[in-house]
Design a protein that fits this description.
Low-confidence stretches: 318-327, 544-553
Number of helices: 24
CATH class of the largest domain: Alpha Beta
Structural class: alpha/beta
Helix content: 25-40%
Radius of gyration: 36 Å
Number of domains: 4
Keywords: Hydrolase, Magnesium, Metal-binding, Nuclease
Shape: elongated
Pfam families: Acetyltransf_10, PIN_3
Protein name: N-acetyltransferase domain-containing protein
InterPro entries: Acyl_CoA_acyltransferase, GNAT_dom, PIN-like_dom_sf, PIN_dom
Mean pLDDT: 85
CATH architecture of the largest domain: 3-Layer(aba) Sandwich
Number of strands: 29
Length: about 675
Amino acid sequence: MNAEPDSMKLETPGPGSRLFEEAKALGDRETKKLGFLPHAAWEDYADARHILVATEGGQLLGYTAYRVPRAEVRIAHLVVHPDARERGVARVLVKELASRHHERRGIGLSCRRDWAANAMWPKLGFVSLGERPGRGSDGGILTEWWYDFGHPDLFSWAPGGSTLTAVIDANVFIDLHSRQSTETSQQTRQLIDALTDRVELVVTPELLNELYRQEDPAERQRLMQTAQTYPRLRASVPEVDRWVGRLAGTSSHPTKSEQDRSDLRHVAWAAASGAAIVVTRDRKVRRTLKVVADEAAGVTVCTPGTLASVIHEREHAGAYAPAALSATELSLRDISSNPDLAAPLLSHGTGERRRDFDRRLEEISAARPNSRLTLVEDPEGDVLAAVGATARTSTLTVSFARVQTGVLETTLAAQVAHYLRDTARALDCSSIIVQDDHLSPTLPKALQSDGFTQVAAGHFAALTIDERVPSAALSLVLARATNSLGQAQADALLGLAQSLSKDSPAALEHAFRPLRLLDADLPTWLVPIRRHWASELFGHPAMLLPRSLGLALSTEHVYYKKGRAGETAPGRVLWYLSGDPGGEVFGCSLLMDVRDGQPKELYRDFRRLGVYTFDDVKGAANENGLVRALNVTDTELLPVPVSLARLRSLAAKTKDGVNPVGAHRVSQALFQAVIREGHRDAD
């Protein structure tokens, strides 16, 4: 008997027919496995046409006898001939019952817990609703099983409403309701309790099957009764089964155990019901089903620790689209709701354990919206870097900072340091602490070059002060910025500030950028730059096409010019966008170096930093064949560009002459006026 189930024939035999007698004889032979059905009852079932048999070539494969009390179907017997088992006969019979009586609520039955058949019902789509003592002399426990047709009732959950909905599986449910308190369960309760006003927890019918596998009878009953108080997903079992097939067919990991099947059915119930979030602590589920669930069903599988991030992401839909990284072909992506994407950055070489790695990322994700977990990817989706940081009071604590080894490693490390300052300002933090014990090898040097100071092995600190103040106010600003730090960290940064303020105000601004000391003894030049070069070098105005990758990722740039306006380093450059349209001061850079030389020499030395071809550099040469190169860093784009008309108005007040065609030095008073004007909304 190797025919497929669809070759079976389903019939309803009447009393006294051959198939009726064969079904009754089969039932009598299996009495010890399913309970006795009196012969008078057989006649009643047959008269009511409530015996359904499956045959093939006239041979009986199996049958079910059932009643239809109230609004449900009630199975009294379901028996498959020993020679026809493992062929899907029982499934065909159940599906036919559902089809014939689809207007009812579902199919119910009772089965002794100690019978082998009891293990079959979950595989057919039934769920356990509870237990009760049987009527037998041995007091055997009966399990009540239910196959739902998907019709809504008062306890059903339906999509819609202003509160997000999350399905919880058994391990999360047990964390919330078990009488045993563990560190993990306490953490789960704290995480879920913090979200009670933002999420509605629901369960799938499959939860009852998971709870049914609990060994302790009293605890099993208590948990199952508690589960009945939750809103539950409602869908037809055939629809859930279709999703099981789709998900299992897409996954590269086979479903082997009862637990695997339950995990799969949780996601399938969510997909069939329109629920978009499934919460689990099971790492295997996340590994095997996370991507499949998202791509095939739009269901996000997350942990209690990342649930807050998932909710935040869905509440702010559109705010988490991939962002251009300095207008290059690389992209930034928030992965707070999916920290597993950072797995390629696990530091095997330093002995980092995957469990600790996962826990760290989940802690960052759980702090949303006061945290960021950001991934850098190339156009092929390969992971290049990631940063995880959490804001507490006015300090950004960076507990995860990694860069993949490769040709861009050093450049990306510098970008990570730069990104930390941007993130700190976005989260209203004035201090940054980096404390990743598995920090990528290129990052310590990059951090120190960026102005971070090392306070312990693998630990670095920096200040990012978004203020424009006179030197006299610096000590007050620094005290405020270091207020939330530990004593050792604060002392190290204050000592650095004291040292730099005496020796180099430019280095001080670099270390604590975007700080501007308005009265610092730094000369400033207004330098016109054409639109094309401004876009290529600084990303202003924004370009439609990605900028040169190495250039866009660099924090250092070079600008070639023909004329000499007395530029000296250290100093500042105010960039004036010339041409039509144009006419605005859009940015300020620190001037690190000024060099004059032959085009070939300068092109060779600064090629990595410029947007010019060799012919462009030659074209910038003066009548003596020399070119001037301005080497700049820490370019800040002004939040509000200063128009030419406004620039002239400010210059009139400071008694400066403004020449929008050629580079020239401006007074400290005009520099202050332009910087304040460019930050007028912030200040």
